[in-house]
Specification:
Blueprint (H helix, E strand, L loop, with lengths): L9 E3 L2 E3 L6 E5 L6 E6 L3 H19 L3 H30 L3 H21 L6 E3 L6 E8 L3 E4 L5 H15 L3 E4 L5 H13 L7 E3 L4 H10 L5 E5 L2 H13 L3 E5 L4 E5 L5 H12 L10 E7 L3 H12 L22 H14 L3 E4 L14 E4 L6 H4 L6 E7 L2 H8 L4 E2 L1 E5 L3 H10 L4 E4 L14 E2 L2 E2 L4 H6 L2 E8 L1
Parallel strand pairs: 7-8, 7-10, 8-9, 10-11, 12-13, 12-18, 13-16, 15-16, 18-19
Antiparallel strand pairs: 1-2, 3-4, 5-6, 6-22, 11-21, 14-15, 17-20
Helix pairs in contact: 1-6, 2-3, 2-4, 2-5, 3-4, 4-5, 6-7, 8-9
The structure holds nicotinamide-adenine-dinucleotide.
Length: 477
């Protein structure tokens, strides 16, 4: 079950490619530090070939009957479900997350392809009211070939969101998933190929990220960029896109606040918070991170949270007992260590964890910091790791002021049994997504995206399809 594929390849112009003197990237298992395989990286000639192929693919795919497009996207979903048990261990081996989470992520890709297979049929325009004999139409058309860059924390689901929506809209797509976690994305691409999506319509490349993005964005063939990743890289890509006035969707970082009011269901809130914070070792852009807890329940909350977190079993994600795996790469461990040490030095209390785990892998213990001073770096910078920060608050206005103080605005959460207070907080949080009394805010039919420096545009829902469509007004007399 766990045999990792060593013949990694990328897919352009209808062919799987490797070798031929191309540079390679070493794939490392983050739980063990062992080398798994070498990944071939596309060169400039490969990218030029992919661009010409994408231009052809757009003409072929946009002209394909929408029912046929939908049927092929459903077929991709079926194949993903059939192969999920084989793909999930590869995801765990190259990314680190526990096997159950990996399987859930793979199955979520099938749900995404199914959703967009249906949504493909709903690229509706409208007819404007005009005097008899005149007609004005508003049409929606696919924007053109897309370049999509997705990160290593959810390698298959984030690539699938972009690919399914672009293909549903009638666009062709060149996907560049992360180089750290290729086998699972190659397996999803194989499902796309086997489902009969035309070779030119969907391609998969790996490479040096800066080289690939500069090359693709500079091409007049590419009409839309979709990126999920860090705020600095998003800003860099936006500047590159400005030259060609390219349409973009930017899903960037967050630093999600969680406002816990005294009237919440405390036990339920603690259970949900401790289970959700350490999913994927906290490497989630919507991970609950800044817990603002009302004074009356502050002691009970911090005690109950630390008790639950200290029981989380950390280990290799392939081990059925592991509730949390390693961090995905060796950049993350020193980054988390530095943020925790800075907070500790400035007066934060370490209630759980606070140190690396053992072994050769990139392990860091599930960590809870309370009374974290506002001056700690981690209060301003997304830790993107297994670290929860807890601070007390007194009033509703104070909680909102703290929650909204950062330049990011992706997700925000609140726990209260008072419906009026829930409405007020949902209105006041400066974020793109709000979870009230729960953390489940991602679904194929729901828009997913942020405000402020967390980016713009949505993935998922009708908004996700719309982001690959352009609007054309036709006025007929
Ligand atoms: P990074 O900023 O170097 O890279 C983030 C992602 O962007 C990676 O997937 C990377 O391959 C890609 N990337 C980097 N430079 C690129 C370029 N020039 N063109 C195209 N793609 C490029 O950092 P990292 O070490 O990989 O991750 C660290 C930080 O990134 C985290 O702390 C987190 O804040 C953020 N991140 C966010 C998400 C998300 O879901 N929003 C996912 C992964 C990482």
């Amino acid at each position: 079950m766990t045999n990792y594929p060593t013949d990694l390849k990328f897919y352009i112009n209808g062919h799987w490619r490797s070798g031929d003197g191309r540079a390679v990237h070493r794939i490392i298992n983050p739980a063990t530090g062992e080398k798994l395989a070498e990944l071939p990286l596309a060169n400039a000639a490969d990218l030029d070939e992919a661009l010409l192929s994408a231009a052809r693919g757009f003409e072929i795919w946009r002209a394909t009957d929408v029912n046929e497009r939908a049927a092929k996207l459903h077929k991709v979903a079926d194949l993903i479900r059939q192969r999920a048990d084989a793909i999930a261990p590869w995801l765990t081996m190259e990314q680190g997350k526990p096997l159950a989470e990996a399987k859930g992520e793979v199955l979520s890709c099938a749900a995404t392809f199914d959703y967009f297979a249906e949504e493909a049929k709903r690229s509706y325009g409208r007819i404007l009211v005009r005097p008899t004999g005149q007609r004005s139409l508003v049409l929606k058309q696919p924007i053109g070939p897309v370049a999509a860059f997705s990160p290593w924390n959810f390698p298959v689901s984030l690539m699938s969101k972009k690919m399914a929506a672009a293909l549903a809209a009638g666009c062709s797509i060149i996907a560049k998933p992360p180089e750290e976690t290729p086998a699972c994305t190659i397996a999803i691409m194989q499902c796309v190929v086997d489902a009969g999506i035309p070779a030119d319509a969907a391609q998969l490349v790996f490479g040096v990220p800066d080289m690939v993005s500069r090359h693709l964005i500079a091409s007049p063939i590419i009409r839309k960029i979709s990126f999920t990743g860090s705020v600095p890289v998003g800003k860099h890509l936006l500047k590159l896109c400005a030259d060609g006035v390219k349409r973009t969707t930017m899903e960037l970082g967050g630093h999600a606040p969680v406002i816990v009011f005294e009237d919440c269901n405390l036990e339920k809130t603690l259970d949900l918070a401790a289970a959700t914070k350490y999913r994927n070792a906290g490497q989630i852009c919507i991970s609950p991170t800044r817990f603002y807890v009302q004074q009356g329940i502050y002691e009970a909350f911090t005690k109950g949270f630390a008790e639950r977190v200290s029981k989380i079993k950390v280990g290799n994600g392939l081990d059925i007992d592991s509730a949390m795996g390693p961090l995905a790469n060796d950049r993350r461990t020193p980054a988390i260590e530095a943020l925790v040490e800075d907070a500790r030095a400035k007066g934060a209390k370490v209630l759980a964890g606070g140190a690396r785990g053992g072994g050769a892998g990139n392990f860091y213990q599930p960590t809870v910091l309370s009374d974290v001073p506002a001056s700690a770096d981690v209060m301003d910078n997304e830790p993107f790791g297994p670290v929860a920060l807890i601070r007390p608050f007194a009033t509703f206005d104070e909680a909102i002021e703290q929650a909204n103080r950062l330049p990011f605005g992706l997700a925000g959460y609140a726990f209260t049994e008072n419906g009026r207070q829930a409405n007020r907080i949902a209105d006041a949080l400066e974020v793109g997504m709000v979870g009230l009394n729960n953390f489940a805010i991602s679904a194929p039919d729901a828009p997913f995206g942020g405000v402020k420096e967390s980016g713009f545009g949505s993935e998922g829902g009708p908004e996700g399809l719309d982001s690959y469509l352009v609007t054309k007004a036709v006025h007929q007399y």
